[in-house]
Amino acid sequence: DQEWRAQKLSGEGLGWMAERLDSDALCEAIRRMLEVKTRQEMKERMLAQPAPLGAQKGAEIICNWIRS
Questions:
Q1: Predicted local distance difference test score (pLDDT) of residue 35
Q2: Taking the CA of residue 10 as centre, how many other CA atoms within 13 Å lie in the half-sphere pointing to its CB?
Q3: What band does 26 get if pLDDT is binned at 50, 70 and 90?
Q4: What pTM value is reported for the model?
Q5: What is the DSSP code (8-state) at residue 50?
Q6: Over the chain, what is the mean pLDDT?
Q7: C-alpha to C-alpha distance for 30 and 28, rounded to whole angstroms
Q8: Is 16 helix (H, G, I), strand (E, B) or coil?
Q9: CA-CA distance, 44 to 23, in Å (whole number)?
Q10: Given this model, what pLDDT does residue 64 score?
Q11: What is the DSSP letter of 49?
Q12: What one-character DSSP code corresponds to residue 17?
């Protein structure tokens, strides 16, 4: 569910949701992302997130299943 993911990420300060799907709303979101302070804060939040390992875990499960 893309809307749920967007809400979750924006709620965690890791992204934004455009208020509307038009050029003015998208331009405003981009303007906010280009602010130095905003980029630095977002970078710090992103670096603090755990590394996603879903594909690696899936591959390990498949390999273990094949070996058994």
A1: 92
A2: 13
A3: confident
A4: 0.56
A5: P
A6: 86
A7: 5
A8: coil
A9: 28
A10: 92
A11: S
A12: -
Q: Which two tokens stand for residue 28?
A: 């405003």
- Give the span between the Cα atoms of 48 and 41, in whole angstroms: 11
User: Token pair of 39, please?
Assistant: 């980029």
Rounded to 5°, the CA angle 7-52-56 comes to 140
Whole-angstrom distance, CA of residue 26 vs CA of residue 20: 8
Give the dihedral of Cα atoms 36, 42, 48, 51; nearest 10 deg.
Answer: -120
The answer, yes or no, to whether residue 52 has pLDDT greater than 80, is: no
pLDDT given at position 33:
83
Look at residue 14 and tell me whether its pLDDT is greater than 90: no
Name the amino acid, one letter, at 5: R
Selection from 30, 9, 1, 2 nearest residue 18 by Cα:
30
Helical ranges in the chain per DSSP H: 2-11, 23-34, 36-47, 54-67
